[in-house]
Amino acid sequence: MFAGDRVALRGRLRVDLPTEVARTTIVPALPDFMAAHPELELEVSSTDRQVDLVQEGFDCVLRLGPIRDETLIARPLGLLRMANAASPAYLARHGVPRSLEDLQRQEHRAIHFSTLLGARPYGWEYPDGDSYATLQLPGALHVNSAQIYEAAALAGLGLIQAPLLGIGRYLESGALVEILPDFRRRPLAVSLVVAHRSNLSRRVRAFMKWIEDVLMPYME
Asked: Looking at the whole model, is its pTM more than 0.90?
């Protein structure tokens, strides 16, 4: 029974990760995981759409936001810290907002993100008492990729609300500036999702535990 944990992990593991989380956090940490399990073959998909675990043959998926498919088994990991940001060039043109009223008075524009182009924009989310409310800001640019979302902000095209995990390095370098720190949108739920709870292989369980450890520093 105890010898089982010392047996090397073998076989193929297919996972899907959000693009920006994969690029900034998971892939840079992968060398240690791969070195610890040299006989494991890892297939990594990276997309901001919601994949079909069963049809596409994924062993494990990392998802941001609520899990709406009740047939899936989700393991909540925590909440990602968020930040509001814009480029220095954008703020030089529009001004630095100090209040929600400034967002409209200074005629600020948001970059709209949705995994489905053509969907109604989520709006600018902010805390309102014990809950959250949204303010609809204009914006001519709609994107469905986290990387393009950040790139658009860096290009000075508008305001964004994004996880610190992705834009923290830009805030540190000054390429982006945090605004309205008291009006951040709600933290983003992070979950590991599998199709079935029973008979999870050792390689899936090992990968899930490793992902949890890697992401822990970025959670609230």
From this structure: no
